[in-house]
Each structure stands twice: as structure tokens, then as C-alpha cells.
UniProtKB/TrEMBL annotation, chain A:
Coiled coil start-end: none
Species of the source: Desulforamulus aeronauticus DSM 10349
Lineage per the UniProt record: Bacteria, Bacillati, Bacillota, Clostridia, Eubacteriales
Keywords attached to this entry: Iron, Iron-sulfur, Metal-binding
Protein name: MinD superfamily P-loop ATPase, contains an inserted ferredoxin domain
Superkingdom of this protein's organism: Bacteria
From TrEMBL, chain B:
Name of the protein described by the UniProt record: Predicted Fe-Mo cluster-binding protein, NifX family
TM stretches of this protein: none
Residue stretches making up the Dinitrogenase iron-molybdenum cofactor biosynthesis domain: 15-102
Superkingdom of source: Bacteria
Automatic annotation (TrEMBL), chain C:
Annotated PANTHER family: 4FE-4S CLUSTER CONTAINING PARA FAMILY ATPASE PROTEIN
Record domain 4Fe-4S ferredoxin-type: where: 61-90, 92-119
InterPro entries listed in its UniProt record: 4Fe4S_Fe-S-bd, 4Fe4S_Fe_S_CS, CobQ/CobB/MinD/ParA_Nub-bd_dom, P-loop_NTPase
Pfam families in the cross-refs: CbiA, Fer4
PROSITE patterns referenced in this protein's UniProt entry, alphabetically: 4FE4S_FER_1 (PS00198), 4FE4S_FER_2 (PS51379)
GO molecular function ontology, one term from the record: iron-sulfur cluster binding
Protein name as it appears in the record: MinD superfamily P-loop ATPase, contains an inserted ferredoxin domain
Keyword annotations of the record: Iron, Iron-sulfur, Metal-binding
Length: 287, 119, 282
């Protein structure tokens, strides 16, 4: 079984659109959305949810009213102003447990907090594992781990030889969780100042995992100077540029229709996307 | 002397997991007795700063050397304080990495090789 | 009047709306404050060529060990939920960048060997021009807990001013810190399914917090009503539409605000403000 993770550093470079195209070109694979903070792969792949699971992240404080003596000690010591009039505001609570330790009546307990859900779904192009973190919940790295572990199990069950994962933007903990143990990281970038700025950092992160790392420049013809700059930078970083996708209004149109661009079947991006996919398959096959 | 390898499974045939703080297990080998066993990395379940919790776990298991892929600044500081030496590799089975270590083919980390959160 | 500006998705034009709104209100009898709470990437100052009048550092308490008092009992390690303290070979190691400043370790240390000591986490800068004030927060590099710096910026809120708060993208903790306690939230989005997806998340968050909101559609195209349909369904007002035009993007990329590059936008932003005032009054 091989795993491909698509990442970008900066958000909005077209990562999810390219993954949507790959899903159709692969025919049958396990699709995995690791962007649990703001998942959006479902917009293109239209999954039907088969199984829903709860995700418990960090612990938060809870007051047992029958034991509480209203002494006010917890309220006085809470640095996050999460306790007011004997009530805990779970959005403000950071789970530091100071209240739990100082309560003389042992009226506070730390309870695992429901921070999100994850799902196993069906799509036209294979099963999909995805998640939704609750409002203002932390710990997305842990949820990404959970999602990827399940993705491997489901892929095994269905005898699928490929997992394609959509990574979250940025270079933080959830990105690391989506790269660990993957066979290949495809970095989707664009020829803008911030695209250039983020490329070096994300390539360094990916190369720390010993996976194949390659770059794809999306909307490359928007700024040909910046595009060349990215190609030079990639060479310096010793990562190949395996695809250059032109700006194509069909990409935006496909998003509006909620389908992968390859299903729309028109526009200047079709052929380069097909070639990019061949390159990806070639690199993964050689590993 | 005890050598631990961050791994995705519990045996020497399992693969290295390059993430010190988020690996599932450590496969530990005692150089003197030749004994091998595995411990679960409970540090990985931490909300944050899993690398520090993991370093504490290794310290509690009297590990002298750890072989892994990525070490962040906090984990490195913690391991240094615990006098645990860090050697880094990129991939392979636990037994291969142990072999490379014994042959002197792994490099000893003199500082963190990734930023916080592995970035 | 305190108005927060948010967007689920990054790059939708939040700062574009915040800066033009602030500039359009300059002739109002009340003073105007613009709070830039995007402390990881503050950029509102680019649009106002004002000299910074002053800057204050933001500190948070972190523990400091008095090794003469420390008994190496491990109580602090047990108490700390964030792994910010480790006990190794009879040394206590503190990790400032993961510390949440909860105070657990120094309250509960049996020998008072841990004492709070200030750590710089960011700065708040203030610039003033007439009745307009710009307050910007900056998170110190290497620090990644932004709410304390956001709170320090918000501590400068003047109750007699019209306060406009520009924050980071997303719907996570820092965003909650900027919208919390405001009278109204303006959500800036774009008419794509991705924009809608993230708008829905932001609206859900505001509902939980009980904050009224309305929507600004940026890069609007007449043939697309994806955001309109959602807003109609949820009863959310559409406050303003900014069309998809390359002139707008180009001028903005040069650091020129919308109302400055095209003054006919000024009455529209004024109208937007009056609409918000009416919505809040209801």
C-alpha cells in the first residue's frame, strides 16, 4: 500500500482541486481529508457518510454541584476567567486543572471533552475518511493521527493499494501528523510572493520524513518570473518540479459545481493534470 | 546500556517512526543482556509538547540512547537534561537502524533537527 | 460600538473591509479605533502611513525555579497539564514556549521553590492621527499562543469610540478572542463553495457565542448566488458586495485601500456602518 499526501504551506493554492482530479484519475483509492479544522474535500467528492465516530481530545473541568461549597477558590485562581458564579465556560477552559487541584471539597473533575467527529464515507472514487473538529477545539494533530490510522485500516479492508490525503495548510502540528509515514509528499504551490515564502519551509518539513518530495506549480502562468524563481528554488532544494498547471477558469467552475475538474472535462488544465498524475504514479511505483 | 528506537510496531521487524513525540512504540534493546522489549509511547497522547512527555518516559525507563528521525528543540533539551543521547536515521526497520547504530553509521544529534511541533 | 471582522477562510478580504470601513468613519462625531488583532501577521498598518506613537510589551508569567528551595518532589510536573516542566536526573527543566501561565505549579509547590517571572510574548503598538487610533498587536517570534496578545490589544478599547476589530482567519481560539463581547461581527467571504463552507463554520461559532452577524461578499460575480441563498436561508443580512475586479486587487496589492483608490466606495461603507448600527439596535 502506498500513501500520497498533498500539502501546500500557504492556503488557497489549489491543493484540494488537484486532489479531486487525482481521485478520478486513480480510479479507485482511499481518500483522506486531514484538514480537520476546515475540511473541504467533501465539496468536490460528495461523500455519503456511512459511519460516524466521536473524538475526545483534551480534558476540561467540570463542577459537581452536589459537592461544591461555593468557596470561590477555583474562580479566584483560574487565570482564564473560565469559572464564573460556580459555572465553567468550556470554551474559555484550557484544561490546566488548577481548579481540580485546589478545590478543598473535591468538587471538580477533569473530563475528556467531545471535541469533534470523524467519519467513514463512500464516494464514486473509493471510500473516504474525514473529520470535523468542533468549534474552537484544539488538538487537531491528534485527530489527524486518528483519521490516518483509520484510513489505513479501511484501505486494507477494501484491498486498495493507494491512499491519497489532503493535508492541512501551514507547517504546524497537524501537517506533521499528515506527513508521518507517507511515501510521497506533493507540494502544491503558486507563483506568488507568499507561495515562494512558504515553499522552502514546507519542503524542509517534508524532507525530514524521508518520503519522496516533489513540487507542482499551480496557476504557473499567472506570473512567469515568479514561476521561474520557484523552479530555481526547487532545484536548489533538490526537489523536482513534476507539474505545471496553467491558470484555468474551468478549475473555479468545477469547484462551483462541486465536482472534480477532470469530470468537467474541459479547459487547459486537463492535460497537464493527467501528466502530473503519471509522474506521481511513476515516482510512487519506483519507491 | 539501553537503546530505544521510535517505531510504529513492537518488534525489531517493524518500521522506524521518525516522529519522536508521536510514535506508537519504543523498541528497547539492552546491550548487556541482549533482551528486547517494547513500551507504548504514552507521551504521544499528550495534548501538546508530546516530545517532552516522551523524553520523560524514556528517562523513566532508564534509556541511554534513543534512535529516531526528528527531534524538536523542547524534546532535545529534555533528553539532554536526562543525559540521553540522540541518534538520527530516516527510514528502515528497527533491526536495520540498530545495526547501523552499532556500526557507527548513524549520526549523533548535537541539536534539534526540526522546529517545535516538528516544523 | 464594537464591531469585529472575521472570515472562516484566509485571503477573503477581511483587512480590505476593516481599513476602508475605518477610513469612511473619520468624519463621524465619534472617534474611531482600528484594532489589528491578526497578531501573527499584523498588516493593517501598511495602509495607514502613520508614525507609531508608542509601544508596550506584553508579558505573561512563567515559573522560575529556586534550586535552593526545590526538593525535586515532582509535584509541579504532576500538576502541569501542558508538559511545560520535566524532572530529569535531579534537574527541573522549564519549557517557556509550552507554558500556559495557569499558575498551577507555583500555587501548589510545597516549598515555594517556583515563583512567577514575566516573559515577553508580544507588543502592542499605538498610532494616532486626529480622532483616529490604530492599535496593532504583534506576537513575538517563537511564541505561538496568541490570545494573551489579542487581549492586550483589546484592553485598549475605548468605550466612547467606534471600535473596529480585525482578526486572524479561521474559527479557532484566536478568532473567538476577537469576536467575544463585540456588538456585531462582519463576516467577509467569497462566492465559492470553499468560501461558503468556511462561512458556515464561522456562523456556527458566532451562534454559540450569541453574537449577531452579517455578511460582506468580496469578489462578487452577478451570476453566482451561492452565498445569497445561504444567507437568505439563515436570515443573515448581506451588508455589502465588492465585485471581482482586477483594478481593486491591483490597487490593494500596492497598499492602497479601497476607499482611497475609488472614493465612491466611501458612502457605501458609511451605509454599511449605519446598517450595522440599525441591526444592533434591533
Amino acid at each position: 500500500m502506498k500513501e500520497l499526501t498533498i500539502i501546500s504551506g500557504k492556503g488557497g493554492t489549489g491543493k484540494t482541486s488537484i486532489l479531486g482530479a487525482f481521485a478520478t484519475l486513480a480510479g479507485s483509492s482511499l481518500l483522506c481529508d486531514c484538514d480537520v479544522d476546515a475540511a473541504n474535500l467533501h465539496i468536490l467528492l460528495n461523500p455519503s457518510i456511512k459511519e460516524t465516530y466521536e473524538f475526545y481530545g483534551e480534558k476540561k473541568a467540570e463542577i459537581l454541584p452536589e459537592l461544591c461549597t461555593d468557596c470561590g477558590k477555583c474562580e479566584e485562581l483560574c487565570q482564564f476567567k473560565a469559572i464564573q458564579k460556580g459555572q465553567i465556560n468550556s470554551y474559555a477552559c484550557e484544561g490546566c486543572a488548577v481548579c481540580y487541584h485546589v478545590c478543598p471539597a473535591e468538587a471538580i473533575k477533569m473530563k475528556p471533552h467531545l471535541s469533534g467527529h470523524w467519519y467513514i464515507s463512500d464516494t464514486k472514487w473509493g471510500p473516504m475518511v474525514h473529520a470535523k473538529l468542533g468549534i474552537a477545539q484544539g488538538n487537531s494533530g491528534l485527530l489527524v493521527n486518528r483519521v490516518r490510522k483509520k484510513a489505513r485500516e479501511v484501505a486494507k479492508e477494501h484491498n486498495l493499494s493507494l491512499i491519497i490525503s489532503d493535508g492541512p495548510p501551514g507547517i504546524g502540528c497537524p501537517v506533521i501528523s499528515s506527513l508521518a509515514g507517507t511515501d510521497m509528499a506533493l507540494v502544491v504551490t503558486e507563483p506568488t510572493a507568499s507561495g515562494i515564502h512558504d515553499l522552502e519551509r514546507i519542503v524542509k518539513v517534508a524532507s525530514g520524513f524521508g518520503c519522496i518530495t516533489a513540487v507542482c506549480i499551480n496557476k504557473y502562468n499567472l506570473d512567469e518570473d515568479n514561476c521561474r524563481f520557484i523552479e530555481d528554488l526547487a532545484e536548489k532544494l533538490e526537489v523536482p518540479v513534476i507539474g505545471k498547471i496553467p491558470y484555468d477558469a474551468a478549475m473555479a467552475e468545477a469547484v462551483l459545481k462541486g465536482i472534480p475538474v477532470t469530470i468537467l472535462g474541459q479547459g487547459a488544465a486537463q492535460e497537464p493534470l493527467g501528466e502530473l498524475w503519471q509522474q506521481v504514479k511513476h515516482l510512487l511505483g519506483a519507491r | 546500556m539501553r537503546v530505544a528506537v521510535s517505531a510504529s510496531g513492537q518488534t525489531q521487524l517493524d518500521e522506524l517512526n521518525p516522529r519522536l513525540g508521536r510514535c506508537e512504540y519504543f523498541v528497547i534493546v539492552d546491550d548487556v543482556s541482549g533482551e528486547t522489549w517494547a513500551i507504548e509511547n504514552t507521551g504521544r497522547l499528550s495534548t501538546g509538547a508530546a516530545g517532552i512527555a516522551t523524553a520523560t518516559l524514556l528517562h523513566n525507563h532508564q534509556v541511554d540512547v534513543v534512535i529516531t528521525g526528528n527531534v524538536g528543540p523542547n524534546a532535545f533539551t529534555a533528553l539532554e537534561a536526562a543525559e540521553i543521547k540522540v541518534y538520527t536515521g530516516t527510514k528502515g526497520k528497527v533491526q536495520d537502524l540498530l545495526e547501523q547504530y552499532r556500526n557507527g553509521n548513524l549520526s549523533k544529534a548535537s541539536g534539534p533537527n526540526v522546529g517545535p511541533h516538528g516544523s | 460600538m464594537r464591531i469585529s471582522i472575521a472570515s472562516g477562510k484566509g485571503g477573503t478580504g477581511k483587512t480590505l473591509v476593516a481599513t476602508s470601513l475605518a477610513l469612511s468613519l473619520m468624519d463621524q462625531p465619534r472617534p474611531v479605533q482600528l484594532l489589528d488583532c491578526d497578531v501573527e501577521e499584523p498588516n493593517a498598518h501598511i495602509f495607514f502611513k502613520m508614525k507609531q506613537a508608542g509601544s508596550q510589551k506584553v508579558f505573561l508569567p512563567i515559573p522560575k525555579v529556586d534550586y535552593d528551595q526545590c526538593q525535586y518532589c515532582g509535584k509541579c510536573v504532576e500538576v502541569c497539564q501542558f508538559n511545560a516542566i520535566a524532572l530529569m536526573k535531579r534537574t527541573l527543566v522549564i519549557f517557556p514556549d509550552v507554558c500556559h501561565s495557569c499558575g498551577g505549579c507555583w500555587y501548589l509547590c510545597p516549598t515555594e521553590a517556583l515563583q512567577p517571572t514575566p516573559r515577553e510574548v508580544g507588543a502592542v503598538g499605538i498610532s494616532q492621527s486626529g480622532s483616529f487610533t490604530l492599535v496593532s498587536g504583534t506576537l513575538k517570534l517563537g511564541t505561538h499562543i496568541s490570545p494573551p496578545v489579542i487581549k492586550a490589544v483589546r484592553a485598549k478599547e475605548d468605550p466612547d469610540s467606534i471600535v473596529i476589530i480585525d482578526g486572524p482567519p479561521g474559527s479557532s481560539c484566536p478568532v473567538m478572542t476577537i469576536v467575544d463581547g463585540t456588538d456585531y461581527c462582519i463576516l467577509v467571504t467569497e462566492p465559492t463553495p470553499f468560501g461558503l463552507n468556511d462561512l458556515v463554520l464561522a456562523v456556527e461559532m458566532l451562534q454559540v457565542l450569541g453574537i449577531a452577524c452579517g455578511v460582506v461578499i468580496n469578489r462578487d460575480v452577478p451570476e453566482n448566488d451561492i452565498i445569497d441563498r445561504y444567507c437568505e436561508d439563515k436570515g443573515l443580512p448581506i451588508l455589502l458586495r465588492i465585485p471581482l475586479k482586477t483594478e481593486i486587487a491591483r490597487a490593494y496589492a500596492k497598499g492602497i485601500t479601497l476607499v482611497e483608490s475609488d472614493p465612491h466606495w466611501k458612502p457605501k461603507f458609511l451605509e454599511l456602518y449605519q446598517r450595522v448600527v440599525r441591526e444592533v439596535a434591533q
